[in-house]
């Protein structure tokens, strides 16, 4: 069942894309991470142009994070003040990132940058997940010790920054500068890599901002939904790079996969699952690295001008 | 299919009967299995059969030229331990597709001067080409472009693609790839004998996007902001809907 993608300008097998969406949804249902960082590499592997892969990845996350945000909003698990402050940063970062992408694409370097960013990001995320899950498998006491250690250190420097504001829902007093800068970084990541950034935002909220765990996931998801929405709009508007069919099929696939993953995840041991995901992430990073280390079969390649 | 076409071609023969009377110049009649291609989401390539009859035994050359299509060529090179894109060339004013199909290798049936006069050959396809920035090694670049176009089946030169049946009928198949420029394609047919073109004919193929596909891609292209905003909202709504529908069946509310 082949369809022609109007923006990516290529024909793909519909079932393969549905399968990609399902895999990523399945993993996120299984272990609770977003999984957006696997969509872009999978799309790159089948030859989707890098900018289209990244932009469509952002649009796909809009779809997959919408219902979760709504559920957390209903449960009152969102610190809206914090989310809006983060959004000031991430919307700025997103707009800057989309323009950086435009400039890089015009010069023909976007694909290279994306590959490097992914090798770096997946390498770090995969390696730390691998270490964490191996530690957890060996004995959960050590991992716990490491966790509480991390929690002790909110630096005094943060309380000395100007623009201190109360965040009543999170029971925090914090300088506006910190969440704005964090948001900015996440916005850049979303526009250059097509990821939601939840895998960075959640640990930052817990260990750096020291927000209560109860509101962390909801606030991160809410912020992520509107960051990816902004980036999706800008990528379509500025770069003409969001492929509607690709995004829709991925959203439907991941919705199916998430259900399946959530059901299975509640019955399987968590440590082993995290280990499997870590291995998948590392494998993708290694494959991408080999892609740029090995002499390409063709020195020249043909692409459609946009 | 093939049989039907052959019969159709035979049916064309009476049209040529008049041509048999002396002093009438050589000529040929041509028909296409379809003169239009509708590009829809399910379009992943098409084949158009061209068939016809000629007034006297000769060789046949068919040239198909699509509208121009802007493409870029990326060049990879070694940077430290990595192989990265090191240059990008934008190419304008070359046809997206160029097919030169003949019943015998073109060089064997037409001298170079005649090929040039009728624009038969890849040199002609690239005659209007503009490249920016100008490549340092123009010959290598040209070779790379033609090689890539050939591998994508976008530029095809085939000296055996036209079949001649019973010295009076000919047929060939134009294979259109999944990705192709829209617009009017020109099909030129040349009857060649003794190193000379003795008759020509031409047809058109119209390649257009249809209905919803056309609507989506033209909106995404020309009104990209409207598309971006409405599509993003639609994806959000779809995500909410799927979450609600599936959430009901499965996990906690």
UniProtKB/TrEMBL annotation, chain A:
<keyword id="KW-1133">Transmembrane helix</keyword>
<protein>
    <recommendedName>
        <fullName>Probable membrane transporter protein</fullName>
    </recommendedName>
</protein>
<dbReference type="InterPro" id="IPR002781">
    <property type="entry name" value="TM_pro_TauE-like"/>
</dbReference>
<dbReference type="GO" id="GO:0005886">
    <property type="term" value="C:plasma membrane"/>
</dbReference>
<feature type="transmembrane region" description="Helical">
    <location>
        <begin position="83"/>
        <end position="104"/>
    </location>
</feature>
<feature type="transmembrane region" description="Helical">
    <location>
        <begin position="12"/>
        <end position="31"/>
    </location>
</feature>
<feature type="transmembrane region" description="Helical">
    <location>
        <begin position="273"/>
        <end position="294"/>
    </location>
</feature>
<feature type="transmembrane region" description="Helical">
    <location>
        <begin position="215"/>
        <end position="234"/>
    </location>
</feature>
<feature type="transmembrane region" description="Helical">
    <location>
        <begin position="37"/>
        <end position="62"/>
    </location>
</feature>
<dbReference type="InterPro" id="IPR051598">
    <property type="entry name" value="TSUP/Inactive_protease-like"/>
</dbReference>
<feature type="transmembrane region" description="Helical">
    <location>
        <begin position="110"/>
        <end position="131"/>
    </location>
</feature>
<feature type="transmembrane region" description="Helical">
    <location>
        <begin position="241"/>
        <end position="261"/>
    </location>
</feature>
<keyword id="KW-0472">Membrane</keyword>
<keyword id="KW-1003">Cell membrane</keyword>
<feature type="transmembrane region" description="Helical">
    <location>
        <begin position="176"/>
        <end position="209"/>
    </location>
</feature>
<dbReference type="Pfam" id="PF01925">
    <property type="entry name" value="TauE"/>
</dbReference>
<comment type="similarity">
    <text>Belongs to the 4-toluene sulfonate uptake permease (TSUP) (TC 2.A.102) family.</text>
</comment>
<keyword id="KW-0812">Transmembrane</keyword>
